[in-house]
Structures are given as structure tokens and as C-alpha cells.
Amino acid sequence: MERIRPCLFTFLLWLIGCSVLPAAIRLPEVLTDHMVLQRQQSVPIWGWAEPGERVSVSFRGQLLETTADEAGHWLVRLAPMPASAEQAVMTVNGENTIRLTDILVGEVWLCTGQSNMQWRLLESDGGQEAITAADYPEVRLFNVSREVAFKRKTGKLAVWERCSPATVPEFSGVGYFFGLELYRRLGIPIGLINSSYGGSQAEAWTPHEYLDASDELRPCIEREAIWEAERPRVRADFERAKAEWESAAATARERGERVPREPRVPDALRDYRIAGSIYYNMIEPLIPFAIRGTVWYQGESNEERAEQYELLLTTMIRSWRERWGQGDFPFGIVQLPNFRAEAEQPQDLAWSHLRDRQRQVARKVEGTGLIVTIDIGEADDIHPTNKLDVGLRLSRWALREVYGYELLAGGPVFERAVYRKDRVILYFTEVGNGLATTDGGPLQEFAIAGADQQWVWAEATIRGRRKVIVRAEAVARPQAVRYAFNNNPRRPNLTNETGLPASPFRTDEWPGPTHGKR
Predict the structure, then answer these.
(1) Residue 6: cis peptide before it, omega within 30 degrees of 0
(2) What is the dihedral of CA 227, 232, 234, 237, to 10 degrees?
(3) 68 with 112: CB under 8 angstroms?
(4) What is the C-alpha to C-alpha distance for residues 422 and 401, in angstroms, rounded to an integer?
(5) Whole-number Cα distances in Å, 247 to 129, 253, 517
(6) Which stretches of 36-161 are DSSP H helices?
(7) How remote is the C-alpha of 138 from its chain's centroid?
(8) What is the bridge-based pairing of β-strands 97-113 and 494-495?
(9) pLDDT at site 334
């Protein structure tokens, strides 16, 4: 106890000093030199100061003043501004002065999700060439650090940087290709925020109160209590397994043998698996920084609860929109790609159901869009390295749905089914000049089932601009149709004039293999 007293005395002196000296104005880490501010909408600028302290913000001819509240928080809102590549200075005045330089006004997008969004440009197909050419001073990057957010390493959460060969290699490949195409098409400054975490589940990106308000989603929170009780045992077991692996690996290397696989870190020991954890550490610090919208590539880690995912993702989107307080901002969803081995017969597996839940969210939630990647995955790798096409498809969606370009956002979209005796008539939207196949051959990957829910391959034919007729001799009274519903469909060839694929879909609502899992 005696050893603690000097520290306590020093701490009390520090508290007294804090009560006497005025607190310096501070800004959140997302407000730095080189940032891009969102054009054409009100832009919050906020921070902390001594309670009651007067604060002023000046930027591009605007001068705003406010007073810090009882907790020391303050916020002003810049009036909407047009895009500008002219470098500008922001000055924040109070008891001290903060001067931010080289600020542009343009379009700001949040790029987020798990490992396929985290995947670095350096590791992507064509990445080295893209890095060499990455001299775009009007594109700015803000790469949120997982190490600072979760491992409490010293340093900033992130800083805004100009896009250059030196700054872009560690940035998201999908995010970079998406933003670069927007820059080329729009011709105005682009700000990209990458906040992604490999292996994460959607509940980790969602605030607790939104999960707790749903009986279906509350188990996402309750799992943490179970993990907390089990964590000492799990940690001991893992450390023992890790030590055994290290010994076996060393022996294998000495003998020139294959090194065994390293033990997987249990979920109970992964902070980023905890419900709400990534939201509080990597999203909340960004709010209410003005953005145009979000592009989201996640879902792989929720496969085991695929049928819960529609509600979970819908809830997450709603929570972000409500917390940001700028309306239903656009939300682009990258659908899971083809993955794992091809199968000769129709399947009914969780990966495909997760894809379908993503489709349902994009169909039902206002301001969302689905980016289909069923043709650019890799059978033996959950991390396909073709990030260019994903980014380009995201930008195509944004150009159409957000910026009003007259183009098709992607492939044809299933609309409805009409059942006629031994056949099913499927109707599609977004067909352009008409439905087609990518290879010029007959339609593939359509399956049909009767009341017995037994799936068989079907014959499918395009009729007119927007109809497909589906039938199978083995099914006299069809009850449902599915398209490209296997994990890795062999030839999903339904398209329109864009050559881009139609999303896998189903007309039924029959329970899938993860039904009831929460």
C-alpha cells in the first residue's frame, strides 16, 4: 500500500491541474490533413474542449461558432459545398488553434467487411502494376488500423494520405479499384475509408442495443457470456496445443517434412468475434464523418447461420444509418462468389443460402444494391485475387444508382415466377436489349422441384426479352425453381447486354440447412 501512495499523490496533482488549466481543443482522428469532405451535403466537424469553451471553425469562407457542452463535446455543420480539387485550410480555434491543410471536397465512401475487403492491393491480381501507376493526388485514403483499434498499439487509428505508390499497397484492393473508377468517371476528388477485419462476423459490426432488441439476434450477445466463462479453459487448451504444434513443426522442418497446420485460434479468444466489438472500435470513431455511402464485402464467417443473415445484415445497415444521422445512405453489398468443388447434382448448402440472404437484403432494403460475383471466385480459395472486377462492378452500381448514369448496374434481376401446369415462367428486370447467355449456348444451372422438394436439373429457354421458361420431364407439377444455387455452379450463363451474371436465386422459401441456428 505504501508503494501506491506516491502514485496516488501524483495522480491527484494531475487532476487538480486538469481542473485549473483549460483543456486543449481536440479533434477525432478521422479529421486530419489531406482529408476529403463530402460534397453537396452538410458536413459535421466535431471534437472536444473545456466545458463551456467557445470554439470556431473556418473553412472555404464559412465561419461557424459553438460552445462545448457540459461533457466537453462540440459540433458544427458546414453548409453543403460543391466538389473542389483546390487545396484548402481548415482552422479550429479555442484556447488553442488547430490548422488542417490540403483539404479537398468530393465524394467519400466507406469500404468495409471482412478479409475479401481487407485484402491488400499488393496481393491482388494486377496489384503491382496498379501500385506503380497510383499517382492520383486527388484520391485520398484513410486506412483504419486493426492493431491500434484492438491491440491498443500506440499510434493513430489512421491518417488521411494522398494516393501514391507509397501509400496504396496496404489499402483494400476492392476499395481502391472501386474508388479509382469513380475518380475516372466523375472527375472529382475521392475519399476512401477502409475499415475492414478478416474473419469477422456481421454481429461484431452491429451495436449491442440493436442485437438485444431482437429475439432472433440476442444470442449473438449471449455467446459472449458463455465465452467469458469458458475463456480460461479455452486459453489453456489453446496454449498447450500451440506449444505442441511448435515442437512438431520444428521437428518437421529438421526432417524436411511437411509442417503440420497451426492450431486455429478459438473464437472465444478473438476480440473481433465479440458482438459489437468492431462497431465500437472501428466504426463508431468515424461517426458522424459525412460519407456518400458504404460498400460491404462480408458474409463468409456467417455461413453457419446463413438463414439468420438477412435479419442480421438488415439490422446492421439500419443501425449505421441511424447512428450516422444522414438518412438512408447507399449501401452496396458484394454477394459471395462461387467457391468449393463443383457438383454434378443440385445442392442445398449454407454458402448458397447466405448468398440468397444477401440478395433478399438488396431486394427489400431501400438504397442497397447487390454486386454479383458468381463467375469470378476460385474453387479452392475463399480469397479470390481478382479484386479489379469486384471494384469495377461496385463502381458500376454506384454510377447507376447513386450518380444517375444511364447504364445497367449489372446482370438481369429475377422478378417473379408464374406456375403453369408442368412449367414455370420466370420474369426478369434489368434486361436491357434482352436476356442472353454469356457463351451463346443454352441456359444452364436451372433446377426444379415438386412438392417433394427433390431437385433435378431443368431445361430452360429464353422467351422474348425478359422471360425464361423452365421445365423438367421428371417434375409434372413444379413448385419451385432455383438458378445457380450450388456453392460453385459449373456454368451460370444467364446475362443481359452487359455480359455480367444474373444473381443466383430461388423462388421457394423452404427452410435451408442452417434453419433455426442463432
Answers:
(1) no
(2) 180
(3) no
(4) 38
(5) 41, 10, 38
(6) 115-118, 127-132, 146-151
(7) 24
(8) unpaired
(9) 99
pLDDT at res. 152:
59
Q: Name the helix (H) or strand (E) containing 247.
A: helix 218-255
Residue 423 CA to residue 453 CA, distance in Å, equals 16
Torsion of CA 335, 338, 340, 341, to 10 degrees: 150
Grid cell listed for 481: 425453381
Q: Are the CB atoms for 515 and 446 separated by under 8 Å?
A: no
In the structure grid, which three cell numbers stand for residue 351, read together?
A: 454458402
Residue closest to 178 by CA, chosen among 296, 283, 336, 279: 296
Using alpha carbons, select from 487, 475, 465 the residue that is nearest to residue 415. Answer: 465
| pLDDT 10s digits, 471-500 | 999 999 999 999 999 999 999 999 999 999
Q: How far apart are CA 271 and CA 488, in angstroms?
A: 32
Kind plus residue range of the DSSP H or E element containing 244: helix 218-255
C-alpha separations of 236 from 262, 265, 266, 398 in Å: 16, 12, 11, 48
Averaged pLDDT in 10-residue chunks for the chain of 518 residues:
36 39 84 99 98 98 98 99 99 98 99 98 98 99 93 81 99 99 99 97 98 97 80 81 88 90 77 92 97 99 98 99 98 99 97 99 99 98 98 99 98 99 98 98 99 99 99 98 98 98 99 96
Q: Are 496 and 430 in contact (CB under 8 A)?
A: yes
At 89, list the grid cell: 485550410
Is the distance from CB of 108 to CB of 292 less than 8 angstroms?
yes
Give the bridge partners for 172, in sequence order: 120
pTM of the model: 0.91
| DSSP symbol at 515 | T
Dist. CA 170–CA 384, nearest whole Å: 17
Phi first, then psi: give them for residue 263, nearest 5 degrees. Answer: -60, 140
